[in-house]
Write a structure and sequence with these properties.
Cleaves the distal alpha 1,2-linked glucose residue from the Glc(3)Man(9)GlcNAc(2) oligosaccharide precursor. Belongs to the glycosyl hydrolase 63 family. This is Mannosyl-oligosaccharide glucosidase. The chain has about 700 residues and is of the alpha+beta class. The chain has a domain of about 200 residues: Beta-galactosidase, Chain A, domain 5. The strands form nine sheets. Strands 1, 2, 3, 4, 5, 6, 7, 8, 11 and 12 form a ten-stranded mixed β-sheet that branches. It starts with 12 loop residues before the first strand and ends with a helix.
Length: about 700
C-alpha cells in the first residue's frame, strides 16, 4: 500500500514531467512493472476557486501483466476545526458531496473513462488525523468473497462511524473510495464547485483530454521562451529532463498550516509558536517534505524565473512567520503530517539560531534579472514594499545576534562546546552541518561564510531600498565595510595556507575512540560504550586553515573579491586542484587534503558536507565564475575557462545520473559522480536548470 513518498518503497522513478504551478500538472510513476500517470487540470470560476479534475491511468510495461488487478484509493478528508461536512455519494463509483467554509458546497465524482473496473468499495469513518490515514485504511480492510465467481478480494467495509457521548453517530472526516481495475484502465476524478454556475461542460473524458493538451502545449512554448534550451543546442532528451526537474520543484510546493515548537530565553522550555499557514517548496518530497529557510532561498531562484508571482507569494508567507525580534524559525514543521516525518531532536527551533539569509540572494537575483517584471503585474512592487520592513528587521536581527567578539566578525550560534561525542561539533545553523570548523567552539570564533552572507544581504537591501526610493545608505555602508579587502584579509586570510579560513580555538588532533569496556564481576556488558572524541594535541586560537572546502570560497562565491585581487587568482588556481575540490562531476565540499575529509562525525553520523558534491554550492561557484569572466582584470580569461568546464561537468553528471537512476539526488559522490542521499531531491539540485539556461 503506497501512501507517503517513501525512500523505502523503492519506486524505479516518480516525477512531475510537466507542471505550471497554477493550472495543470502531469506526473509519471514507475512501481515495478506498473506505470502510473497522474494529471490534473483546473478551471477557474465561481466564488471558491472553481473546478478541477484529475486523471489516473494505470498501465504496465510487461505484456504478461495485461489483465492484472490494481486498486486505486481516492481519499477525501477534512482537518480538525475545518467546519462543514463530507459524506459519500453516488451509486456505482462512490464519490463525495460536502461543504466547507473555504470551498463552499462541492461534489467529487469518479468516472471509469477507459478500461474495465472489477470492483468498487468505500470507507466512511472518523480518522484520528491526517497523519494516520494510511493506518486507518489498513485497519479497515476486509477480505471479501464473491459467492458466484468465488473471487476473493481485499476491500473497504463501507460506513464505520463511532458514536459520540450522546449515542449519535459522528459525522465522517475521512472518505476513501477503492477502485479495483483491470490493467490497463483510467479513472477520472471530477471536483465541481457549486458556486461555479457558468460552466459549459464537465471537465472529464474528451473535454479533459482537450484541456490537458492545450495546457501542455502552452507549457512547452513557455518553457522554451523562459530558458532557451533549444537555442542553446540541448538535445530533446536533455530538454525533457530539464522540464521534469523544473516541474518537480513546482509540483513539490506545498501549503502547510500549524505551529512551530520554539524555545527562547524568555520561556522555561519549548512552547508553540502561533498557528500560521506556509506556502513553500520542499527539498525532497520523500525525505524532507517541509520548509527549510536557507533551502527556500535557493528554490526561489528557479521558481521566480518560472513564475515571479508564486515566488513573491512564497516569500510573503515565510516573512509572515517572523517574530517581533526579526527571527524566522529555520525549519518549518507545521501540522501533524509534517510533524510525523521529523525526528524529535529536530522539532524544537531556538530563537538564537540563524540560517543563511538566502532570501536576500533570491531578491538580488530578481532585481538583476526581472526588475522590469516587478513593475508589471498585480501589485508586485506593493508586495516588495510590504516585505521591506520585515527584510530590515531580519537583517538587523542577524547583524545584532550573530556578531562576534571583535568588530566586523560574525559567529554562527548553536554549536555544542561541551559534547565529547562529535569529532567536530556540528554547525547546523550554517546549513553546512558537519563541515569542519574550529574543533572547540567558543566565543572567539569567526566564521567567514556568515560574514560574507551578511555583506551580500546588506548589498541586496541597498538595491531594494534604491528601487523603492528609500534611504539605503546604512546598508550600502555596511556592505562597503564588510567587503573591504584589507579588513576581510586581516580577519580571515591565512598567510600560512594562503586561503580564506574560519578562526577559533582549534586542533587537528582529534579522533573518535571507544572507551575501554568496564570490567564486571564475571558478566559481559550488554552494550559496547559509544565512541567519544579524544584530543591528542593541544588547542590554540588560530586560523582553521588545514581545512579547504566550500567555506574557503565564500568571498569568491558571493562575489566580494576585487577582480584585480591576487587572492582571486589564488582561489581560481586552488579551485582546479584535484587534491582540493576539483572533480569531473563538480566541486567536492571538502578538499581531499583536509584532515576530516570523508571522516564520520560520530560513529552513527557518516560524512555529509565532508567530501560529497552539493549542487547549490556548485551553482554559486559557476555563477561567480560567470561574474568574474565578465569583469575587467587579469583573471577574466581564466574564470571564463573554468566557467565552461565546471558548468559542463555539473550538468553532464546530473543528467547522466538521472538517466541511470530515474532521479535527481541530494548530493553526488566525489569519486564516481553517483547520486547519493535522498531522492528525488529537486530542491536546490534543480538549479541544474538555471545552469543549463545560464541564468545567474
Amino acid at each position: 500500500l503506497r501512501h507517503w513518498c517513501e525512500l523505502g518503497d523503492n519506486l524505479d522513478r516518480y516525477t512531475w514531467v510537466q507542471h505550471d504551478g497554477t493550472n495543470f500538472g502531469v506526473q509519471e510513476l514507475e512501481d515495478g512493472p506498473f506505470l502510473f500517470t497522474t494529471s490534473y487540470v483546473k478551471r477557474l470560476g465561481g466564488r471558491h476557486g472553481g473546478d478541477w479534475s484529475a486523471r489516473i491511468t494505470v498501465n504496465t510495461k510487461d505484456s504478461k501483466l495485461q489483465g492484472e488487478i490494481v486498486s486505486l484509493l481516492w481519499y477525501t478528508a477534512t482537518e480538525e476545526k475545518t467546519g462543514g461536512f463530507i459524506k459519500p455519494s453516488g451509486r456505482q463509483l462512490t464519490g463525495v458531496v460536502g461543504q466547507t467554509e473555504g470551498l463552499g458546497a462541492f461534489s467529487i465524482k469518479l468516472f471509469n473513462s477507459s478500461g474495465q473496473v472489477d470492483n468498487v468499495s468505500y470507507l466512511s469513518t472518523v480518522a484520528p488525523g491526517l497523519h494516520l490515514l494510511k493506518e486507518t485504511i489498513i485497519s479497515s480492510l476486509r477480505l471479501s468473497s464473491d459467492k458466484q465467481t468465488k473471487k476473493r478480494r481485499i476491500v473497504l467495509p463501507g460506513e464505520i462511524l463511532p458514536k459520540g457521548h450522546d449515542g449519535i453517530k459522528l459525522e465522517p472526516n475521512f472518505i476513501a473510495t477503492q477502485v479495483t481495475g483491470i490493467v490497463p484502465f483510467t479513472l477520472d476524478v471530477v471536483f465541481e464547485s457549486s458556486s461555479f454556475i457558468e460552466r459549459d461542460e464537465t471537465l472529464f473524458a474528451d473535454t479533459y483530454t482537450r484541456e490537458l493538451q492545450r495546457s501542455q502545449d502552452e507549457f512547452h512554448h513557455r518553457f522554451e521562451a523562459t530558458f532557451n534550451l533549444e537555442k542553446k543546442g540541448f538535445s530533446g532528451e536533455e530538454i525533457l529532463f530539464a522540464k521534469a526537474v523544473l516541474s518537480n520543484v513546482i509540483g513539490g510546493i506545498g501549503y502547510f498550516y500549524g505551529a512551530s515548537r520554539v524555545e527562547s530565553p524568555y520561556t522555561r522550555g519549548p512552547v508553540p509558536y502561533w498557528k500560521a499557514p506556509l506556502l513553500t517548496a520542499v527539498p525532497s518530497r520523500s525525505f524532507f517534505p517541509r520548509g527549510f529557510l536557507w533551502d527556500e532561498g535557493f528554490h526561489g531562484l528557479l521558481i521566480s524565473t518560472w513564475d515571479l508571482d508564486i515566488e513573491l507569494d512564497i516569500m510573503g508567507h515565510w516573512f509572515d512567520l517572523m517574530n517581533v525580534e526579526g527571527w524566522i524559525p529555520r525549519e518549518q514543521i507545521l501540522g501533524q503530517e509534517a510533524l510525523s516525518k521529523v525526528p524529535e531532536e529536530f522539532v524544537t527551533q531556538r530563537n538564537s539560531n540563524a540560517n543563511p539569509p538566502t532570501f536576500f540572494l533570491t531578491l538580488q537575483f530578481i532585481l538583476r534579472n526581472f526588475a522590469n517584471s516587478l513593475m508589471d503585474g498585480e501589485d508586485r512592487l506593493g508586495t516588495l514594499e510590504r516585505l521591506y520592513p520585515r527584510l530590515q528587521a531580519w537583517f538587523d536581527w542577524f547583524n545584532t545576534t550573530q556578531i562576534g567578539e571583535e568588530s566586523g566578525t560574525y559567529r554562527w550560534r548553536g554549536r555544542d562546546g561541551t559534547t565529547n561525542r562529535e569529532l567536530n561539533p556540528k554547525t547546523l545553523t550554517s546549513g553546512l552541518d558537519d563541515y569542519p570548523r574550529a574543533s572547540h567552539p567558543n566565543i572567539d570564533e569567526r566564521h567567514v561564510d556568515l560574514r560574507c552572507w551578511i555583506a551580500m544581504a546588506a548589498s541586496a537591501l541597498s538595491e531594494i531600498a534604491q528601487l523603492l526610493n528609500r534611504n539605503g545608505n546604512r546598508y550600502n555602508n555596511t556592505f562597503l565595510y564588510l567587503s573591504d579587502s584589507d579588513f576581510l584579509d586581516t580577519l580571515h586570510w591565512s598567510p600560512k595556507s594562503e586561503s580564506y579560513s574560519d578562526f577559533g580555538l582549534h586542533t587537528d588532533g582529534v579522533v573518535l575512540k571507544r572507551p575501554p569496556i568496564p570490567k564486571t564481576h564475571g558478566h559481559h556488558p550488554q552494550h559496547k560504550p559509544e565512541m567519544i572524541r579524544v584530543v591528542t594535541k593541544a588547542t590554540e586560537l588560530k586560523f582553521v586553515d588545514t581545512t579547504f572546502g566550500y567555506v574557503s570560497l565564500f568571498p569568491f562565491l558571493l562575489q566580494l573579491l576585487n577582480p584585480y585581487s591576487p587572492k582571486l587568482g589564488k582561489i581560481l588556481k586552488d579551485l582546479q586542484r584535484p587534491e582540493f575540490l576539483w572533480t569531473e562531476y563538480g566541486l567536492r565540499s571538502l578538499g581531499k587534503s583536509s584532515p576530516l575529509y570523508m571522516k564520520r562525525n560520530t560513529e552513527h553520523d557518516p560524512p555529509y558536507w565532508r567530501g560529497p558534491i552539493w549542487i547549490n554550492m556548485n551553482y554559486m561557484a559557476v555563477r561567480a565564475l560567470d561574474f568574474y569572466s565578465h569583469q575587467d582584470g587579469p583573471y577574466r580569461a581564466e574564470a571564463g575557462k573554468l566557467y565552461a568546464k565546471l558548468r559542463h561537468n555539473v550538468i553532464t553528471n546530473i543528467h547522466r545520473e538521472y538517466r541511470r537512476t530515474g532521479y535527481v539526488w541530494e548530493q553526488y559522490n566525489d569519486k564516481t559522480g553517483e547520486g547519493q542521499g535522498s531522492r528525488p531531491f529537486t530542491g536546490w539540485s534543480a538549479l541544474v536548470v538555471l545552469l543549463m539556461a545560464e541564468l545567474y
